[in-house]
Amino acid sequence: MTPFTYARADDAADALRLGQATATAYLGGGTNLVDLIRETVARPAALIDVTGLSNAIVETQGGGLMIGAAVRNTALAEHIGVRTRYPMLSRAILAGASAQIRNMATVGGNMLQRTRCTYFYDTDGSRCNKRAPGSGCDAIEGFTRGHAILGASSACVATHPSDMCVALAALEATVHLHGRGGARTIPFASLHRLPGDRPEFDTVLEPGELITAIELPPLPFAANSTYRKVRDRASYAFALVSIAAALELEDGRIKDVRIALGGVAHRPWRASKAEAMLLGGPATAAAVHAAAVVEMADAVALRDNGFKIELTKRTLVAVLGDLAGAAA
Ligand SMILES: Cc1cc2nc3c(=O)[nH]c(=O)nc-3n(C[C@H](O)[C@H](O)[C@H](O)COP(=O)(O)OP(=O)(O)OC[C@H]3O[C@@H](n4cnc5c(N)ncnc54)[C@H](O)[C@@H]3O)c2cc1C
Ligand code: SF4
Fold it and tell me: 109: CA distance to ligand 1 center in Å?
């Protein structure tokens, strides 16, 4: 392990000041970063502990929720406003990791956790463009059961691992950032990148930029929402496919719908094509299946992950069927 210094920031300004030096990394709960350091995938010279940033969840004037970056995953999942108004978010968080890890993990860290591609962590024997740009990708012709079927590139076929982020994509959250150029906000959909030919960049964050909060918009129909995660084990496993969805019906027709997919791409995948097809139509299994077929039309299977295409379609039919039943 490379030696590093440690300092704790009191607030965002303090974190930015401490984070000026090169090769610094912000430390949330450490549940991903510490593993990356142990495996020498990450070699920061300095760690800036940002768990002293806001850990509050407050109502916004517009009727949404502002969630501080240091809020622990457990606290967010258990918050009564999240459970009742955005149940997909609560369920997504509770579908991830273990209770102990969720108690430690922060909202900011969850958003920036790195892929679980095993070749990425294998510093001894595997080529990985994300870890060592230009070195190649041993996953593409390797074991690809957990890898991407949408939006991948010839440089990287990794998936984004977060469950929470799939719900944030469906809810159209806003990310609050603080960097050397000041504060800014970006839509959650813009935060994570597709790999293209630069898979070493997971997000659009500038060097040293800090996540300070995530904002949920008011979305009354999200009270009828859910998250379903399909995985190899019932707990403590990352998603093969997951779906965050919300549904509103009016006179038996779909008035509004949100769908985001996890486990299929380098970032949470908003199923915009499926949503567009469903709007105004019936919430029947046949209609949802037809929309899923359109959404997955560009999916590309690797050696071991072709099953994800059909699995996504079937899971979407099941999830929207449940939400339609609850809304009727
Ligand atoms: C065994 C195991 C199983 C898991 N299973 C799942 C699962 O099923 N589903 C799932 O979604 N997750 C799973 N996880 C991942 C877990 O959710 C993440 O490790 C956790 O959310 C990361 O949060 P953290 O606060 O510990 O981040 P850290 O590990 O502290 O940091 C992660 C990254 O975020 C950066 N960072 C942290 N805070 C900020 C900030 N405010 N601004 C800018 N950068 C910041 C760090 O520099 C680092 O790059 C699992 C983890 C483990 C170890
Ligand atoms: S899929 Fe991406 S993360 Fe995995 S080995 Fe290839 S380049 Fe690295």
Answer: 4
> Are the C-beta atoms of residues 101 and 33 closer than 8 Å to each other?
no
Other beta carbons within 10 Å of 267: 27
Residue 128 CA to ligand 2 centre (angstroms): 5
Q: pTM of the entire structure?
A: 0.98
CA distance readout (Å), 30 to 1, 48, 103, 140, 269: 15, 11, 11, 29, 26
By alpha-carbon position, which residue is closest to atom 6 of ligand 2? 137
Of the chain, the end-to-end C-alpha distance in Å amounts to 57
- Tens-digit pLDDT profile for residues 37-92: 999 999 999 999 999 999 999 999 999 999 999 999 999 999 999 999 999 999 99
Q: How far apart are CA 322 and CA 283, in angstroms?
A: 10
* DSSP class per residue in 101-121: HHHH-BHHHHHTPPP--HHHH
Determine the 3-state secondary structure of 260 from DSSP: strand
Q: Is the CB of 128 under 6 A from ligand 2?
A: yes
DSSP state of 40: T
The minimum-distance atom of ligand 2 relative to the CA of 158 is: 1
Which alpha helices (H) appear in the chain, and where do they start and end? 12-18, 33-38, 73-78, 80-85, 87-94, 99-104, 107-111, 118-121, 164-171, 272-278, 285-295, 307-327
Rounded to an integer, the average pLDDT of 279-300 is 98
